[in-house]
Each structure stands twice: as C-alpha cells, then as structure tokens.
Amino acid sequence: xxxxxxxxxxxxxxxxxxxxxxxxxxxxxxxxxxxxxxxxxxxxxxxxxxxxxxxxxxxxxxxxxxxxxxxxxxxxxxxxxxxxxxxxxxxxxxxxxxxxxxxxxxxxxxxxxxxxxxxxxxxxxxxxxxxxxxxxxxxxxxxxxxxxxxxxxxxxxxxxxxxxxxxxxxxxxxxxxxxxxxxxxxxxxxxxxxxxxxxxxxxxxxxxx
Length: 209
Fold this sequence. Notes:
Blueprint: H1 3-27, H2 34-39, E1 42-49, E2 56-58, E3 63-64, E4 73-79, H3 86-100, H4 103-106, E5 109-115, H5 123-131, E6 138-141, H6 144-153, E7 176-179, E8 185-189, H7 195-207
Parallel strand pairs: 4-5, 5-6
Antiparallel strand pairs: 1-8, 2-3, 2-6, 4-7, 7-8
C-alpha cells in the first residue's frame, strides 16, 4: 500500500467517525427543558425518591401495594368519591389526557385514584365512581395509617375529617404524582392540568426512561 493510499484511508476513516458522531448526536433526543416542563405544570426531581410498601385494597378488592406501581409508569391522584369539585374535575382532565396521548404512551401508563376517605369509599364505591369516567382507571384505599404513610412519602397533604357529620368534606391537595416503572417517585404535576402540554411532554418523559 502506497503512502497516498494510506493517507486516503486515514482521511476516509476520519470523515466516517465525524459523520457517525454527528448522526448519533442528531438521533439522540434533546434533554428535557426543565423550564418548559414547569410551564406545563410538570416538576421532575433530580433524583427519584423511594416509595414505602403499604398494605391497601384495590378497587377490585385485592391487595394493593408498592408492587402495583412497578412495570409501568403511574399517575397517582389522591382524593375521594364524594368530593364535589377537585376530584371529578381532575379525573375528567386525566381522561382527556389519556385520550390525547399516542397509543405507545397510553400502553405504558396507568392512572390510579387513591381514596383518602376509607370510611365511605369501599372498593365497590370506588369502582362505581371510576366506571363513570370510562377510562380504565385503577383505584385503591385502605386503613388511615397506611394511607398516611403513602401520602407522606409522596408529599400529598390531606386532613382526616370529622366523620360524625353525614356530609363531611375532606381537604386534600390536588397534584398528580408521577411514578416510574421501578416504583419510584420521580415528580408531580400541579393543577389545573394543561392536557395539551402534558400530551406533548409525557411521551418524552416516558421515552427518556
């Protein structure tokens, strides 16, 4: 092989490396813009946070715990079925959001409604309530101590009500918790939900895992 041939091969190899690096950079998704995410109401933590195991009951009256939050992405919303405003509004927005997401994203995402009113919200009551939304939402509730443990870990605030009154209300926060497929608390969505922007960002967040 002559010197000229060696020089040509070296040049070709160098060009191939440069082209490969450029293509690889172009093909990689751009980093998530935290400012744009926050404008959409999405707040992601720098590091995922652990979720304690709890012993609750699902809306189908089966054991429900941390294992139910693994294997898929989850959006958790804490509320109660007798809620007059925040809960039906948020669940309706979550239904709209799921309808706007591409099928590939919907197949990796589960919405779960966690009732903080176990006094009235039996599994049967939760099932009836969620069926109204016709969106395939999951549900769970349980003893007050177990609910408090889960809510505290997920930064959810609520006040246990005075159940002596027949039509009591339960004060609770309205954010939606984001859990990754490893069952870790990775962020939250602030209300009111902007379904248009969420439908744009959630596929990227899920795809970034």
